[in-house]
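We both want to read discrete structure tokens more fluently, so let's practise on a single case. Would you supply a protein for us yourself, any chain you care to pick? Would you write everything just below, so we can both look at the same thing?
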Amino acid sequence: MVPAMQRDARERFLADVHVGVLGVTDTRGESAPLLVPVWYRYEPGGDVVVQTARSAVKTRLVEETGRFSLCVQDETAPYRYVSVEGPVVSVTDPADAAEREATAHRYLESDDARDYLTATAHQLTEDITLRMRPERWRTADFAAFAAEFAGSDGNR
């Protein structure tokens, strides 16, 4: 059995910089849940914050269902992931400018963030800000498993 992360570890991991994969039930009945990569922000104990286009399919589906999930992972060994799911607790329309700036600086170097914000300034009127309160957590940290698998002889 793969060990789950403790609360403080999972919250720190989610707060680290990862591209998240947002998942939402596809209420159109045409397919499996919709999954799309997104930038996000999270601070331990807080809400998951995502900004997205008001006109996006994911936005419409999140508004219809009132909830979404977000999954983030380490793509290098030993692998780890955190998945959170919960209700949308607020929608800011149009997008929150301070959140947008903070998110850009989270993912980009300072000069690149400034240039990105300037080049995409129109999105402030086209995007909305979603805040989701995590209710369900799913986690795995393969570090202990990897150490066990490697054995004690150090030859593997």
